[in-house]
Amino acid sequence: MNDAPLTLSQRILYAGLGLGLFFGLWAGLSGSGLVPRQFLPGPLDVLDRMMQLMTTPFAGATLPVHVASSFERYIYGVGLAMLIGVPIGLMMGWFRLLDDIVTPIFDMLRFIAPIAWVPFAALWFGTGIGGPVMIIFAGAFPPCLINAYRGARFVEPRLIEAARMLGTGNTRTILEILLPAAFPSIVAGLRVAAGLGWQSLVGAELIVAAAGVGFMMVQAQANVATPTVMVGMIAIGVIGMAIDVLLRQGEAIVLRRRGLQMSGR
Q1: What's the whole-number mean pLDDT along residues 81-89?
Q2: Exposed, middle or buried: residue 97 (CB in 10 Å: 0-12, 13-18, 19+)?
C-alpha cells in the first residue's frame, strides 16, 4: 500500500475529480427523466434558487438571515456546553468523590439522543431560542465533559506529585498543571462537540424553531419546493465542513505547540 503523502496540487486534482463525478451523476440522473425534476432538480436549478434566496425572502427571511439565525443558536448552545462541560470534566478527573457522584447520572443522560429532547424542549420553550439551544447543548455537552475528564485522568502522575510536594493548592494545581496537560484532549473534544452541536441544531430547527435553515427546509418541504430544500442541505453541509476545517486547524496547532513544548523540556 502506497502511503506517500499527496502534494497540494494532487489533493486539489482528486477533490475536483470527485466533485465533478458527483455533480455529473446528479445532472445526468436529473436530466434522464427517471426521477421527476420536481423532486430532483439539476445542479443549475439549485444554484439559481440559491442566488434568488440570497436576496429574496422565503419563510420570512433571506438565506443569509436564516443562516445567521441558525448560527446564533449554535454559538449559544455549543458555548454553553463548553463552559459547563469542560470544568465539570476536569473536576471529575481531579476529585474522585465528584466522579462517583456525577458518573451514574451522566452515563444515563448521555445516551439520550439530542433529538429525543425535542418534545421536552418544545414544552418548555415553544419555538423560542431556548428550545434549539437546549437541544444543541444536549448534543455538544457529552464530548466536552468526556474529553476533559480523560485529559485530566491521564495527566502525568509525576507532575501532580511534584506540585503536592511543593505544597501547591488544588485550585492552582488545576489551573497550572491539570488544565494545560489536558488541553489537547479538551480541544479534540471541542471539535467533536462542534460537529454534534451543528447536527443537533438542524434537527431542532426542523421542529422547534420559527427561523433558521432547518425551519426554511420544513417550509419548503410543505410547499414541495425541492430546490429550496436542497439549498438548505447544501448550506448545512458547507457550514458544517467549514466549522470542522477550522477546528481541525486549531487542533493541529495546539498539538504541534504541545509537541514543541514537550520536546523542549
Answers
A1: 92
A2: exposed
Which pLDDT value is given to residue 231? 95
Q: Report the alpha-carbon distance of residue 27 to residue 19 in Å, rounded.
A: 12
Alpha-carbon distance of 220 to 48, in angstroms, equals 16
Per-residue pLDDT at 241 exceeds 80: yes
Collapse the DSSP code of 60 into the 3-class scheme (helix H, G, I; strand E, B; otherwise coil) and give the result.
Answer: coil
The residue extents of the domains of the chain are 42-263
CATH topology of domain 42-263: MetI-like fold (1.10.3720)
State how far the Cα of 116 lies from the Cα of 139, in Å rounded to an integer.
11
Taking residue 47's Cβ as centre, other Cβ atoms within 10 Å add up to: 15
* Secondary structure of residue 126 in the 3-state scheme: coil
Tell me the C-alpha distance between 134 and 132, whole Å.
5
Report yes or no: 208 and 126 within 8 Å, Cβ to Cβ. Answer: yes
Task: Give yes or no for a contact between 205 and 212, defined as CB atoms under 8 angstroms apart.
Answer: yes
